Amino acid sequence: KAGVTQTPRYLIKTRGQQVTLSCSPISGHRSVSWYQQTPGQGLQFLFEYFSETQRNKGNFPGRFSGRQFSNSRSEMNVSTLELGDSALYLCASRREGPGGGYTFGSGTRLTVV
Amino acid sequence: ELKVEQNPLFLSMQEGKNYTIYCNYSTTSDRLYWYRQDPGKSLESLFVLLSNGAVKQEGRLMASLDTKARLSTLHITAAVHDLSATYFCAVDLQGGSEKLVFGKGTKLTVNP
Predict the structure, then answer these.
(1) What is the rounded distance in angstroms from the CA atom of residue B35 to the CA atom of residue B108?
(2) Class of residue A10 by CB neighbours under 10 A (exposed 0-12, middle 13-18, buried 19+)
(3) How many angstroms separate the CA atoms of A76 and A46, rounded?
(4) In degrees rounded to 5, what are phi and psi of residue B40?
(5) What chain B residue is nearest to A58 in terms of C-alpha separation?
(6) pLDDT tens, B37-96?
(7) Which residue, A14, A28, A61, B43, has most beta carbons within 10 Å?
(8) Closest approach of chain A CAs to the CA of B80, in angstroms?
(9) Cβ contact A64:A48 at 8 Å
(10) How far from each other are the two terminal CA atoms of chain A, in whole angstroms?
(11) Alpha carbons A5 and A75: distance in angstroms, whole number
(12) Distance CA A68, CA A33 (A)
């Protein structure tokens, strides 16, 4: 079965621009969460969506936002990009239920110059 | 606030040797996950541990969970070069917060 699909794989943006990343979860998974990975801060939770509702949000500035569509696909948006936003952004989908693990996509590598 | 600590952060070992990576967490949880990450790649799920005393094995890797001690271990048996990667443990809060808190990762290098 298809895994979690993230697009694009790589992005180079200039400071001040905005960017939108996309994530398509595994079919049937309604929970989608986003993580930022940097060498300095490691893996940090951004937000989680379920049935188009944000259920949880990490400690990131308001420049980071997201949404989820009725087909469970999710997007995250970062506005007014800063150099420190350069990171690997990972999306995970999860099947509901106690045994459901998190499956991660290949990630989007964002470089802000 | 849930905190997850892994140690060691760096591990260099010879092929054929055994070693254990430790993962401690600060708040009650009964869901612990182990992931592997190769350089420039995403996270590959290794184990999902859902209850106290859970033990899972896959090849040369075995993971266990002690919820009373808030400790999980990832044991490597007879290491081979292909196991070289960074290993992360992660925990989410009881009640299913749908938010993973990760350890800093253990970078494992297996030398021939």
Answers:
(1) 13
(2) exposed
(3) 9
(4) 75, 5
(5) B99
(6) 999 899 999 999 988 888 999 999 999 999 899 999 999 999 999 999 999 999 987 666
(7) B43
(8) 25
(9) no
(10) 37
(11) 12
(12) 10
Q: How many CB atoms lie within 10 A of CB A4?
A: 22
Asked whether the bond before A8 is cis by omega within 30 degrees of 0, the reply is yes
What does the block give as tokens for A63?
Answer: 């420049």
CB spacing of A104 vs B90 below 8 angstroms: no
Residue B27 confidence (pLDDT): 85
- Cα–Cα distance between B78 and A62 in angstroms, integer? 48
Q: Tell me how many residue pairs between chain A and chain B have CB atoms under 8 A apart.
A: 52
Q: Which regions in chain A score pLDDT beneath 70?
A: 1, 98
Furthest-apart CA pair in chain B: how many Å? 44
Q: Where are the beta strands (DSSP E) in chain B?
A: 4-7, 10-14, 19-25, 32-37, 43-49, 55-58, 61-66, 71-76, 85-91, 101-102, 106-111
User: Is the CB of B9 inside 8 Å of chain A's CB atoms?
Assistant: no
Bridge partners (DSSP) listed for residue A21: A76
Is the Cβ–Cβ distance between A43 and B110 less than 8 Å?
Answer: no
The answer to whether the CB atoms of A101 and B98 lie below 8 A apart is no
State both tokens at A21: 């990343």
Alpha-carbon Rg for chain B, nearest whole angstrom, is 13
Closest CA to A28 of A71, A77, A91: A71
